[in-house]
Amino acid sequence: MDNDAALKRLSALAQDSRLAIFRLLVKAGPAGVAAGDIARALDTAPNTMSAQLLVLANAGLVRARRAGRSIIYAVDFSAMSALLVFLTEDCCGGRPEICAPVIASAAACCPPRKSRRA
Amino acid sequence: MDNDAALKRLSALAQDSRLAIFRLLVKAGPAGVAAGDIARALDTAPNTMSAQLLVLANAGLVRARRAGRSIIYAVDFSAMSALLVFLTEDCCGGRPEICAPVIASAAACCPPRKSRRA
DNA sequence: GCGATACTTCATGAATTGTTGAAGTATGGA
DNA sequence: TCCATACTTCAACAATTCATGAAGTATCGC
Asked: Which nucleotide, over all strands, has the C1' atom closest to the CA of B46?
């Protein structure tokens, strides 16, 4: 991922409503949520919502697909992943022990089920 | 980390020079870099740089410490970590297999040295 | 085809942000 | 104390971004 793309994604996320939309979609997962449902959930006008979703889509963070009259938006998890990688790039500087905690806490979102050490 | 803090951090990073500064400091690690050196490295006026660094510092992403006449800036890795966690929060939605690749690729920045498979 | 629903696009005005020059503060050396 | 270096702060202008109302496009059921 290049600098411009990263900047576009960060700018897209750096706004109250859009960050809320993104987090809602992250929680919703690959199934996604219809534009209208997002608008209602966040109490936003449909046209405003549409503009916000366009920004997120142009940044590559979400993808739109039509389903009947609705348009379903879902997070592009690989794009999200690429952004995290970009931000942590070369964070080691030859010292993995420094950035290891960063990765560890990010991984905490998904505790492995089988070996749950207290 | 709350929504406002995350928003402040994303806004701080969502700007060309500041993203460059941040990445430079990520690479530099805990030792940090003097404000003047950052300004020279990125070919930016000292006062402009000062304003940018202030934004990053107010967002909590970097910390400043004085060393003689210089002021050294360094990334606050725990703040950076908290932001990544915030963005990936509840990304599982009960399905770790979805967000696992996200974490895995972020972790790729720090390949474990001892067991280098492949 | 017609009307209703679901969203998007466009144009406008208000607010926020970024850069610059000038002036100010802090440290170190003579 | 005096000067130079290293940064920061202030004030002001230019550029970008955001929300809104009005109008437009696509789909569905009748």
From this structure: D7
